[in-house]
Amino acid sequence: MAKKERCFCGSGKASKNCHRVASESRAANLFRLYDLVDKAVAAFFETKDVKPQCFSGCNNCCSDFFAVSEVELEIIMDDIHNSWTEQEIINLYKKVMNNIRTFQEAHPDLDHAIQTQLDYEDNHNNFKSFKGGRTRTSFPCPLLNEKTGKCSVYEKRPMVCRTHGTTHFELDDKLNKIESAVCEYIPSRLKNTENTPNTTVYQMKYEEIVNVTTNKGSLYIRKMPLFYGIHSLAYLQQFNPTKSTVVNRHNLDMSIKESNEMQLKKAASKR
């Protein structure tokens, strides 16, 4: 990222003082997608005689067991290391380590799958939460401010947090007909589909951005539960709260084309 490069978002600020990512990077492309999704959701509810069933002050889904992409983790960690105090970062690291210990004790099989880079989704049926059998952890997302009940990285929150409960996207025909609850306050997924915008096209674009997709090949970049992901990036930085950004910035500084080529070469060298 050039020192005097203007931010891709059009703010007029230098990139280093705004989003801190190169204009054609994977991160910049994801930020553009976030903006499209946010506007689509807002426009839908402005023109429809319905209100989103998700409401301010509710954070139940912050305890859901969900995964986020590598680039989303790097965006969040870069923001944290540029806007939080050292003590706040230290407290976050302590919270994350406690989260992992709690999870390891309750779900050793899933922990093993996550730690060994296996597809932990295959073990999802073994996951029994502490809250009525839902796919939830006994602790909330480490980025939830439990005093205010609000997300501490709201503007940089990942795609799953932007779309859960307020949108829907198309699954295969069989799954589209299965009824289930979205959460305690949204008891019908099928009814929610009628009252929320269809974001299938954005979900497809999201997968294209966060994974490696080129005419030379493709590569699935494995997602991780957020608390494991934060721990992994913190480990690379030796849990140093004074670091100004994440160690690996290829998703933030390199063009998505360059990043894709680099990751394909890296994957090929391991075969």
Task: Describe the model.
There is one protein chain. By secondary structure, the chain is mainly alpha-helical. The chain has one domain (26-269). Helices cover 44% and strands 5% of the residues. It contains eleven helices and six strands. The chain has helices spanning 26-47, 70-83, 86-106, 108-115, 159-163, 173-176, 189-194, 200-210, 226-236, 250-253, 256-269, and strands at residues 67-68, 144-145, 150-151, 212-214, 217-219, 224-225. It has a two-stranded antiparallel sheet. Strands 2-3 form a two-stranded antiparallel ribbon. Strands 4-5 form a two-stranded antiparallel ribbon. A hairpin with a 4-residue loop joins β2 (144-145) and β3 (150-151). The chain is globular. It starts with 25 loop residues before the first helix and ends with a helix. Residues 128-133 have low confidence and may be disordered.
Please give the structural blueprint:
Blueprint: H1 26-47, E1 67-68, H2 70-83, H3 86-106, H4 108-115, E2 144-145, E3 150-151, H5 159-163, H6 173-176, H7 189-194, H8 200-210, E4 212-214, E5 217-219, E6 224-225, H9 226-236, H10 250-253, H11 256-269
Antiparallel strand pairs: 1-6, 2-3, 4-5
Number of domains: 1
User: Can you write the helix and strand succession as a string?
Assistant: HEHHHEEHHHHEEEHHH
What's the end-to-end separation, in Å?
A: 31 Å
Task: Flag low-confidence runs.
Answer: 128-133
The fraction of residues in strands falls at: 5-15%
Q: Kindly state the number of beta strands.
A: 6
Radius of gyration: 19 Å
Q: Main sheet, how many strands, which sense, barrel?
A: 2 strands, antiparallel
For the biggest β-sheet, the strand order reads 1-6
Helix content bin = 40-55%
Give the overall silhouette. globular
Please count the helical segments. 11
The average pLDDT value, as a whole number, equals: 87
Which structural class should the secondary elements be placed in?
mainly alpha
